[in-house]
Design a protein that fits this description.
Layout (H helix, E strand, L loop, with lengths): L1 E6 L20 H14 L4 E7 L2 E8 L2 E9 H14 L11 E9 L2 E12 L2 E9 L2 H4 L9 H11 L4 E6 L6 H12 L6 E5 L10 E4 L8 H8 L6 E4 L5 H12 L3 E6 L4 H10 L4 H7 E13 L5 E4 L2 H11 L5 E4 L12 E12 L2 H8 L5 H8 L7 H10 L5 H7 L9 H13 L47 H6 L17 H4 L17 E6 L5 E5 L4 E2 L2
Parallel strand pairs: 1-17, 8-12, 8-13, 9-10, 9-11, 11-12
Antiparallel strand pairs: 2-3, 2-7, 3-4, 5-6, 5-19, 6-7, 13-16, 14-15, 17-18
Bound molecules: zinc ion (ZN).
Zinc ion binds next to loops.
Length: 545
Amino acid sequence: MMVQFDVKRVQKGTESFMVSFDFTKTPVTQIADYIIISASKHKSSDIHFDPREDGMMVRFRIDGDLQDYTFVPKAYEKNLTTRLKLLANMNITESRLPQDGAIKGMYGDKFLDMRVSSLPLNEGEKIVIRILDYTMSLEGVDNLGFHPKNLEKVKRMMNIPNGIILTTGATGTGKSTTTYSILQGLNKPETNIITVEDPIEMNIEGINQVQVNSEIGMTFATALRSILRQDPNIILIGEIRDSETAQIAVRASITGHLVLSTIHTNNALATVERLLDMDVERYLLSTALTGIISQRLAKMICPDCRYQRETTKYEKKVFKKYMNMDVNQIWDANPKGCDHCRNGYHGRIAFHEVLELDDNIRNALNNEKLEKKELAKMVYSGSTITMLQDALIKCLEGKTSFEEVYRNIEIENEDDDNYENEMATEIKSSVPKEEYVPESNDLLDTPQNKNTTNDVSSVITPPAFTAADFVDNNPQPVANTIQALPTTPVVAQPQTTQVQPQQVMANAQYAQPVQQIVTPPTVVQQQVTTPQTTTVNVGQISKVN
Ligand SMILES: [Zn+2]
């Protein structure tokens, strides 16, 4: 059976991969499989099936952005929805209420684990499939892009047998990946690890995982109370959402357990404030909290087509103010892109802020009269690299662009309004016309004066450390230290580790497909701009019970 579809290339680098299926000749089962496999191959995090008046738009979320993938005519929409719901073990006769389901299966030797949810809309049922990627979590904390100083802190925090380690950030900032990576590092035969999750995002061998089910009264708090009687060493609480859970988490940690959890806040300081708002007693919190890892995800520059350009006035100012550095050249994404990326970006990178609590902060937390400003000063002095600084370092290393830093992090600067205009004029004129600027090591100019004092009186700036602090055990002066930073991104490596289902699955019954639903369709891929045709064997999704 052949699926005819065409790939329209809008222009090189800004590749649109819209495809169209021949619904008259291809069974919907194969189309559903093809969409899922294609999303996985494009490293999408989610697939959206959006019902519209005239049909259904299928979109992939790649590197944080939704991209149109294919359009399903109204006549076939219901079939496709039903097929997806069947795969996800959902009730196909119910289309007026939201449902949750899951698809686990094999595609070749690749294990696919997906969460499916349906939501009735006025135009029909919307389905969203989240594709869970275990690869990152299985590689451990060393591969999450932490700055060496932050990685050191995280590892120290992991070695403390009791206390709370919180990972914070908005939805989709990679909190779960970081938390699971820490858990993987702590997963030893001699420890009893229990998790309470909603939903369980990843099945890990050797770990007891509890699914929250509030409909029958199995809430985070209920589950936690029982868990404490199960002799745990380490407890993972999927998310701290309410006061009760926060209080149990704190109590568990001061009675000798290591508690990992996530919370929806933007930075370390906001997390402390949020916990205090949740009625957690100050003296307990100050004893319990080991550390806070805050993070955000930004797009990573494609290492194959990035180029160097001069910094704008605004950028110079930001580097001077927050890094105490004179920066005249930075890497940027090439909007034309290349075969390895889209618009000059490929994959994502996390910006971190890691706060390890010391006695000063503990004492401050204990003091009810302490003002927010004072706490902020304490949190962001000393060895804490702020999220903005971490982002700027990653920008200097050529891993992300200044634009991504600006887009993701609020930068307090008097000239903020001018930035967009400046970007529009200065950067566009510096984009290379034909060729990519070859890589070189002269990324940074020597700072004119490394002892430049900064008269900004804001509590967060100037940094209490010099640029030299960003490189470990390096006694060289600032200029050499910064030049020693790698100019080649160390990220965006193709995944070479194959996830073995049995490695990550608690239950061996999922490891082998039990029932084969479809036969592999063969697909002919036609590119509009080139006469070549490529035959792609798309394999199959096998449903697993
Ligand atoms: Zn590229």
